[in-house]
Amino acid sequence: QVQLVESGGGLVQPGGSLKLSCAASGSIFSIGTMAWYRQAPGKQRELVADITSGGIVRYADFVKGRFGISRDNAKKTMYLQMNSLKLEDTAVYYCYVSPHWGQGTQVAVSL
Question: What is the DSSP letter of 63?
């Protein structure tokens, strides 16, 4: 059984920063691509960014230049540095390692 635990969410003002973490544990020998998704109220879950085990990254257009994804393979942990946050970044952010999902962490950007 694999567990993915996100942390680091919270409330921040527009223009602020947060750093999310996703720690993988359990019966997992190696981890391939890890991804961050988000789901805002009333909207579908969407890919934010992903990163392969070799460090190749991909970003959704709406976060390019603002967010940075990284991982520490030894710690089986993935990170999402979020800068210049906007109101529309408000969502629950989920960690995904196929086929497993984390429970999500809430990010709220508000004045």
Answer: G
Phi-psi map region of 80: left, alpha, beta (phi>0 left; psi -120 to 50 alpha):
beta
Measured at the alpha carbon of residue 18, what is the angle toward residues 73 and 7, in degrees to the nearest 5?
A: 55
pLDDT, one tens digit per residue, over 52-81 is 989 999 999 999 999 999 999 889 999 999
Rounded mean pLDDT of the chain? Answer: 94
Asked if residues 37 and 14 have their Cβ atoms less than 8 Å apart, the reply is no
Chain centre distance of CA 107? 10
Beta bridge partners of 111: none
How many angstroms separate the CA atoms of 2 and 80, rounded? 20
In the chain, beta strands by DSSP E: 2-7, 10-12, 18-26, 34-39, 46-51, 57-59, 67-72, 77-82, 91-97, 100-101, 105-109
